[in-house]
Write a structure and sequence with these properties.
single chain, mainly beta, Jelly Rolls, 3 domains, five-stranded antiparallel β-sheet, 1 helix, 2% helix, globular, disordered N terminus
Length: 281
């Protein structure tokens, strides 16, 4: 049995069953919280624990492996921390003196050169590049925090390394957030994965089927962090969706890169989605 002290009480971990209970205090009297652990995290009852939900999608999946993100290719992580050029394909994504109808301000949540989490808000200027003040080694999320009358992106908003062509994150047209199951665990944090969800389907009027294999990958074996990816889950699905609870919670240590990849058994072009859920502490 291990005990972790927190401001709202104590978390009791049973090392035999790998379960946890929260020991809280009411008027200096101890009380055991029998609330579901994830629900307690979601309601903010366990300090320094945050619900994790990362999701992505990729279209036109064929017989070549791609990562689950809007770029539709194998994702390339930044080699070094660098400032990012933020730009849209539409002049309506702007929040300068003359505001547009699309996304006006975006927020970037990422990591600096030491893997410490940093956040920066960027006011867009349509098709004109706006360069970040901070240098980012990783971008974990890109999303709108202020929109015009259309309440969504008028064009495709991208984040690229300054002066470069590689896209590290993007918000597609008519959306307000990126769609990429690409994530790096910040310094000082540990990610615990509790479930993985995948889905695949082909639209159109004709009946089409494509079997897609999803692989969840991380640059870790649960203890060590490497410079290459190892699989920690693999799921196959045909024209449907599956949610897979992780029976033994998967531990992902700090500075680990994680991603989901997918490959189809034909060239018919499936739309695939994936999500990873759990918590950070």
């Amino acid at each position: 049995m291990s005990i972790e002290k927190i401001s709202k009480g104590i978390k009791l971990m049973d090392s035999l069953t790998n379960t946890a209970k929260a020991l809280q205090f009411n008027a200096e009297a101890p009380q055991v919280c029998s609330q579901n652990y994830l629900q307690a995290i979601g309601e903010g009852n366990i300090l320094n624990h945050i619900i994790f939900n990362k999701f992505g999608r990729v279209s036109n999946v064929g017989t070549s492996t791609v990562d689950v993100w809007s770029g539709g290719s194998i994702y390339v992580f930044p080699a070094t921390a660098q400032k990012m050029d933020i730009v849209s394909s539409s002049a309506q994504d702007k929040g300068t003196t003359t505001v547009g109808t699309g996304v006006q301000i975006v927020r970037i949540i990422g990591l600096d050169a030491t893997y410490t989490q940093i956040t920066e808000d960027v006011t867009l200027d349509g098709t004109n590049i706006v360069t970040t003040t901070n240098s980012f080694l990783r971008i974990n999320r890109l999303y709108a925090i202020q929109c015009g009358t259309s309440l969504a992106a008028a064009g495709t908003i991208t984040a690229k390394g300054t002066g470069g062509a590689v896209v590290y994150s993007q918000i597609d047209i008519n959306l307000t957030s990126d769609r990429q199951l690409i994530y790096t665990v910040p310094l000082g944090k540990t990610l615990y994965v509790t479930s993985i969800r995948v889905g695949a389907g082909i639209g159109g009027t004709s009946v089409k089927n494509e079997f897609c294999t999803f692989t969840a990958k991380a640059t870790t074996d649960g203890t060590n962090v490497y410079n290459f990816f190892l699989p920690f889950a693999e799921i196959g699905v045909m024209n449907g969706s599956i949610q897979l609870p992780v029976e033994e919670v998967q531990k992902i240590p700090a500075t680990t890169d994680i991603k989901a990849s997918v490959i189809g058994d034909s060239a018919q072009g499936a739309l695939c989605t994936s999500a990873v859920r759990g918590w950070l502490e």
